[in-house]
Amino acid sequence: PEKERGTYKGLANPVFTKWVSRMGFKAIELMPVESFGTDVPLAERGKQNHWGYMTMVPTAPHTGYAATDRPELEFADMVRTLKKQGVEVILDVVPNHTLESGPDGPALNLRLEDGQLYIRHDYTGCGNTRDFGHPINRRMFLEELKYWKGLGVSGFRIDLATIIGREHGGGFDPDSRMLRELRSDPELHDIKFYGEPWDLGEGANMQQQVGKLAARIASNDDDIYSQQHIAEWNPHYRTPMLDAALSHDDELPRSKMIWCMAGSSNPYSDPMQVVNKPGGGHDGPTLFDAVSGKHGKNNWPNGENNNDGNQIHSKHYWEKPEDRLRVQRFALGLLAVSQGTPMITIGHERCHTQNHNTNLYCISKNPEDPNNHSAWIKWPKQMDSDAKSVMAFTYACNKFRNQHASLRRATHFTGQPDEASGLSFAGKPMQDVTWLNPNGSIMNDHEIDHAGGFAMMTSGDPGNSSPKEKCFTRMVQRTERDSPLLVLVNQTMNPVTFTIPDVPGVSWKPSLKSNPEDTQTEPMKAGQQITLGFHSMIAFEGSRILEMGTVAEKIAARRNNTQGSAISA
Questions:
Q1: How does pLDDT run across 100-134, given as a tens digit for each residue?
Q2: Residue 435, beta-bridge partner list
Q3: 113: alpha, beta or left, given left = phi > 0 and alpha = psi -120 to 50?
Q4: Are 75 and 63 in contact (CB under 8 A)?
Q5: In this structure, are residues 358 and 285 in contact, taking their beta carbons and an 8 Å threshold?
Q6: Rounded-to-integer distance, Cα 471 and Cα 213, Å
Q7: What is d(CA 130, CA 97) in angstroms, rounded to the nearest whole number?
Q8: What is the three-class DSSP state of 92?
Q9: What is the pLDDT of residue 562?
């Protein structure tokens, strides 16, 4: 209903909850819904803080998103309704600054209490930075998290998360008091956390802290290491994988793609520490805008002379609509078969456009302004055929990933023989992962470092963590063995012919195809060939081939067992 659109109640509407569950999404992350105010300088220009990153009261739902006069109850009902559909709710929280801007800004909440709650340096770009060396800031943040957990929230994405690891303006410490309290608080032991592993403290080198936020910290208990309670947005995935999927440049070394698909083992000690995104989130181009932005970003309506926001790269632009469709699906397909937690911004799955605006934080309040509608999402009755195609493929990606535990490992691939699989390749027990040339042979180091098509073959090892593992997000990874998988990837601009590898006793069924033009539907056997066009991938599920004699023997044995039981009775 129109009066419920853009509200907590609207999000609990069965049309949405059933759609998000049916699509196979396991969680949704909401941008800040804590009560927020308006950034004063922008307000003077008649704009609004569309993103909600100016927190005013961190323990109250923003009333502007409520359809009723009981926002807490409405929010809790929304969370409960989504959970019934198997979908968790994650909140984007902003502990690093308040809406009070710089030293000359208004005194609205914390500044009225104690100026020592802030540090002198602006590590946020918003004019003020909270000091997590101060016990009140630490206590307030913990109480904020517990409040939202009490309303049913399952996890949190922490904005500029490294700031909570700084004390009194000093360097980032992965074992700071705030991070220690997050790890040890018994009320938060079952909460999922991830965040941005950077802030402005390092100036131009914002990514200096990447890997440190998710660092594993030594425990005094039997020398077991406890993972930091916070996973990270993975910047190492975003750029190379987007280039591989969208760029006209086919010189990207296989090694970069393989490293990303395998979970970025350096600097991350396990795949559960990374959240992978195919390009921009709220603060960047949509996937469709990235491939259709011939003239780059269009941030002129923001009133900052098009100087704000992330650029849209010309190397990602595709002239033909069918090619735009192809590379969007390719990006989503690569995400589905990569280790780590996949995340997309709503709209990526339906060719959503923001008219090439990459920075919607200050869209106009005026409902007559066309830019006001840039963030509005089209639903199926309004979608064109390309959008429906991408949505259908996103569903297929989620379904395929959810069916295969070996794509959701809690530990990195080892490259060691997987004896438990009972499978062999090249005369040896199959490894948990094998990286192959298009001709079906194992790639050597020289070949990995060069561009070209390649294949990933997995044995079905789910990569479970140790039973003694303490971190909740890894403890839940207790999954059974998976079937072997074969993923063929052509990120080049030319067709590549692949030979199906020889795994005795296994045939390969094509189950996920990014290119609609690929028509292969029948299972394939060792030695057969298939040609993939430019920027496309196919994932195969392996199944055991039973010889006819073996099948006949099993049927006969079953018949004999049945007859014996009948006689005994």
A1: 877 777 787 777 777 788 888 889 888 889 999 99
A2: 456
A3: alpha
A4: no
A5: yes
A6: 14
A7: 5
A8: strand
A9: 47
